[in-house]
Amino acid sequence: MKTIIEPFRIKTVDPIRMTTREHRETALQRAGMNLFLIDAEDVLIDLLTDSGTGAMSSEQWAGIMRGDESYAGATSYHRFHEQVRTITGFDHILPTHQGRASERILFEVMGGPGKVIPNNNHFDTTRANIEHSGAEAVDLVIDEGRIPTSRHPFKGNMDIAKLEKLFSDVGGENIPLVMVTITNNSGGGQPVSLENLRAIRAVCDKHKKPFFLDACRFAENAYFIKMREEGQSQRDVADIARELFELADGATISAKKDGLVNIGGVLLFRDMEMAAQARNLLILTEGFPTYGGLAGRDLEAMAQGFKEVLHEDYLQYRITSVAYLGEKLLSGGVQIVEPPGGHAIYIDANAFCPHIPPKNLPGQAIICALYRHAGIRAVEIGSLMFGGEGQAPDMELVRLAIPRRVYTQSHIDYVVEAILEIYAERDKLRPLEIVEEPPQLRHFTARMKELDA
Q1: Which end of the chain is more exposed for a tag (fewer CB within 10 A), N or C?
Q2: Domain ranges, ordered by start, for the chain
């Protein structure tokens, strides 16, 4: 692989605090073995999430200085609205403070007891907001999406036959919408093909149901389509992204991902009546519809971020640098979800430490070891995040989410070295047991203890 050159220069640096193993051990015990509860200053390289952790450009910072903080009808809102409308083609555009706020409003409008909402894979807050409304969240990803070693180019695809069966089994009257996450975060950051999205659109048309996207990483998905899907290689990524949105009746977006900002979200509708209901809820809980819980400066940064994320030199760097990490781990014997995803690399925790059963959280054991050994923070996506109450996830994964425009190749080489060193002594990893947990989204605040191996 050729050297990966970042398509930017570094203008400001943020010092990293170097810590000792003893210091990290103390922090880990104090946090109850939960890396969400570790202080950021005690982390050397933070791969917990790519959400809101990226670096903004000079043009985004310039936009922040231009921010119009008028309560209603600010010029910053109009710039934001026009940029999102240009990218997506939607006219009903509501800003929110982040993606989960968009989800909460959407499912308060369209969810409710007795409803069933299919997706390729719901992510944690999406599922929680659906269930909070009283509805049921159902995952319908293709079978290849549940096999880490499969090299299917679009493992995020929804299984169309399973979708049709769901309509038959529960009745179309109980399915208020169909949703698809692009890229598929819970399934390894895997993309969804245009062919699959068109097929989903056809099913929705057949049953007269709206089709929504969880479009947090729409630009990365569009780039994968350009790279992998037959007949798409000559198209501009912006053109592909526009088609993704044109296939949908609405979308939720966390701008903290492909919006390249530290805070912000979007909720999109085609239907005027549905948009009006959402707008009323927005006013109730987020703010006036032209600021949606954000400052004008945040709207400026979002407008510029949505423009920059479609630059193809940036996307090439982004996807290639993530793949670099994945292929290095594979060459060292560490099984990941293949092929490498768009925003993160997902380690197959079952293959990494087969001596730890899912009930004892193998993914959590790996991330605790990684932090203890090298000060690197990652996140478990497995039985801690999606288990409990008799539920079992399809895969036990560790996600290494790469913040946008933050770390260099030498940082990633350090991550590779640390993981391979842990892998060499993987039989020493210890099982865990939950000692304290909340009723929902337990992975954020649960506390655990290590057991004797």
Answers
A1: N
A2: 21-50+311-450, 58-308
Above 90 in pLDDT, residue 33?
Answer: yes
Burial 256-275 (b: 16+ CB within 10 A, else e): bbbbbbbbbbbbbbbeeebb
pLDDT of 230 over the 90 cut: yes
CATH of 58-308, one of 3.40.50.300, 3.30.300.70, 3.40.640.10, 2.40.50.140: 3.40.640.10
Per-residue pLDDT at 4: 83
For residues 337-351, b (16+ Cβ closer than 10 Å) or e, as one string?
bbbbbbbbbbbbbbb
Provide the CATH topology of domain 21-50+311-450.
Aspartate Aminotransferase, domain 1 (3.90.1150)
Q: Which residues pair with 381 in a beta bridge?
A: 397
Query: What's the CA gap between 84 and 307, in Å, rounded?
Result: 9
Determine the pLDDT at residue 140. Answer: 97
Could you report the per-residue pLDDT of 266-320, keeping only the tens digit for each?
Answer: 999 999 999 999 999 999 999 999 999 999 999 999 999 999 999 999 999 999 9
Tally the C-alpha atoms within 13 A of residue 342's C-alpha that lie toward its C-beta: 32
1 has pLDDT over 60: no
Map tokens 């768009």 to a residue. 342
Compute CA distances 247 → 158, 197, 200, 239, 270, whole Å. 15, 7, 9, 13, 11
Rounded distance between C-alpha atoms, residue 17 and residue 6, angstroms: 24
Cis ω for the linkage preceding 183 (within 30 of 0)? yes
Q: What is the pLDDT of residues 15-29, one digit of tens each?
A: 999 999 999 999 999
Q: Convert the pLDDT of each residue in 352-373 to its tens digit.
A: 999 999 999 999 999 999 999 9
Kindly state the greatest CA–CA separation across the chain.
61
Q: What is the pLDDT of residue 390?
A: 65
CB 75 within 8 A of CB 68: yes
State the Cα angle at 254 between 181 and 247, rounded to 5°. 45
Measured CA to CA, the distance from residue 180 to residue 178 in angstroms comes to: 7
- Return the DSSP state at 145: G
Q: State how far the Cα of 377 lies from the Cα of 233, in Å rounded to an integer.
A: 36
Query: What is the DSSP code string of 366-405?
Result: HHHHHHHHH-EE-EEESHHHH-BTTB--S--EEEEE--TT
d(CA 369, CA 453): 14
Cis peptide before 339 (omega within 30 of 0): yes
The pLDDT of residue 2 is: 73
